[in-house]
Amino acid sequence: MCCALYNVTTNNSSISATSGTEDTITELTPPAGVQIYITRIKAGLSFTTTTDSIVSIRVIRASTAGATGAGVNIRKHRPESPFSVTTPLNKNGINPFSVGTVVDVMLDTTFNSRGSFEWIPRTSKDVIWSNPGERLAILMKSTIGQSAAVSAEVDFGE
Amino acid sequence: MAQYTVQVNATSNSTINTEDTWIEIFPPANVSVILKRVRVSFPHTTVSDVPARIRVTRSSAAGATGTAFTPVRRRPAAPASVSTVNIKNGTAAFTVGTLVEIMLDSAVNSRGIFEWVARDEDDYILSGVNQRLNVLVRVNLASMVLNTECDFDE
User: Fold this and answer.
1) What ipTM is given for this predicted complex?
2) Touching check for A95 and chain B: CB below 8 Å?
3) Which of A26, B54, B105, B128 is least buried, going by the fewest C-beta atoms within 10 A?
4) What pLDDT digit, counting tens, does each position of A60-77 carry?
5) What predicted TM-score, i.e. pTM, was given to this entire model?
6) Is the separation of the CB atoms in A59 and A136 below 8 Å?
7) Domain extents in chain B
8) Domain spanning B3-153: CATH 2.60.40
């Protein structure tokens, strides 16, 4: 591993209002021949009311895109780094952003909506790699039964 | 060495407080499995407020009966795992094999997440020769849906 680290955040994505319906929150698509690797995932609900619900989060390798996300800026951890070549998409508000074709599930867990979730790799061997040119996606669903705003962040290298 | 991930989404025993095997990893005789991370969460359809006990054990015999799982390679170019991995299969019971040693014994409320991460390489949990490494879970609620995951090297 070497290269540059980047960051994508969202606070404009809402979990599906339908309990148990999973959406893509963030989808990262590297160009052909390029592999990216996730180094951090953070997620929580920035909903305006407190709820006591189950929020599920998965990280997948996907061979096709979900539909339909909105473009978002990628930030460089180090300003001198080159621009990322990855295409990032975030869920756009309450609009559905379906789940692409799942290749591998790399993480599958839940947290209570009163809390938040953060995953970091223990060492550099623990990062979550994409296949070359293949998407990595963060998926979320909940049992809230109404739209709830998500604040999430993904850090990745390429 | 390469690193792998195992996941299971299944249902706890229909008898309350009955421990099941959720993940059983059995390496070949000349290979050690190195456990680096264990995570348990509770994606049940309703929120519950119950304790769950999580144990990591070495065992000398298999539980009965799991279903085969192909470990996911963290790095796609890595070789396939050589270990035999079985996971709990839905609501079917997966008993606890013959216990050799308990390496971790902890508990969490079902509103939370349990996660153990090895602090450094001295903190890894290694399998014994001809022994399985197991993740066992017991819940104070019958038939509760859990996710159990682990990362290992071999």
Assistant:
1) 0.83
2) no
3) B105
4) 999 999 999 999 999 999
5) 0.90
6) yes
7) 3-153
8) no
